[in-house]
C-alpha cells in the first residue's frame, strides 16, 4: 500500500503534465502615479493555487514604459498578473502592493498600450504598510 500511493501520485502528475499547454504572454505599457510616468520595478507572475510562478521582471524607463513577457505550461488558461510595490500617494515611509490581472485562454497573447495607474485603489492588493 505504501508503494501504491506514491505511484498513483506520479501517474496523476504525468497525466496532468501531458495535457498541459504552453501559454505565452507579452504585456507592453506605461506606469503612472498621479498622471505622471514612474520608473519602477514590475514583476510578472502566473497565479497558481499553491505557489505563484515568477515569469519576468523589469524596470520601467523614465517615460514609465515597460515590457514583460513569459511562458508557462498550464491546463486550461493562463492567470498572469503584474505586481508592483510602490509608495504612490502614500505617506513617507509607507508603501503598498498593487496587482494587475490578465486572465487569458489564448496560447500567445500580446497586450499593448496597457496603462497601470498606481492610484487606482481597485488594484491595491496589500497595504499600505508603514515603517
From TrEMBL:
Signal peptide: 1-20
GO cellular component terms, A-Z: cell surface; extracellular region
Keyword Signal: yes
Pfam families per the UniProt record, alphabetical: TTR-52
UniProt superkingdom: Eukaryota
Subcellular location: Secreted
Entry keyword set: Secreted, Signal
Family named by the database record: Belongs to the nematode transthyretin-like family.
The protein's name in its UniProt record: Uncharacterized protein
Organism whose genome encodes this protein: Caenorhabditis angaria
Lineage: Eukaryota, Metazoa, Ecdysozoa, Nematoda, Chromadorea
Amino acid at each position: 500500500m505504501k508503494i501504491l500511493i506514491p505511484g498513483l501520485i506520479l501517474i496523476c502528475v504525468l497525466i496532468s503534465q501531458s495535457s498541459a499547454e504552453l501559454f505565452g504572454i507579452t504585456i507592453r505599457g506605461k506606469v503612472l502615479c498621479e498622471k505622471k510616468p514612474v520608473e519602477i520595478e514590475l514583476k510578472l507572475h502566473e497565479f497558481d493555487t499553491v505557489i505563484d510562478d515568477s515569469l519576468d521582471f523589469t524596470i520601467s524607463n523614465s517615460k514609465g514604459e515597460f515590457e514583460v513577457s513569459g511562458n508557462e505550461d498550464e491546463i486550461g488558461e493562463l492567470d498572469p498578473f503584474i505586481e508592483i510595490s510602490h509608495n504612490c500617494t502614500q505617506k513617507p515611509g509607507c508603501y503598498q502592493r498593487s496587482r494587475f490581472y490578465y486572465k487569458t485562454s489564448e496560447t500567445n497573447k500580446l497586450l499593448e498600450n496597457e496603462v497601470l495607474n498606481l492610484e487606482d485603489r481597485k488594484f491595491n492588493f496589500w497595504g499600505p504598510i508603514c515603517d
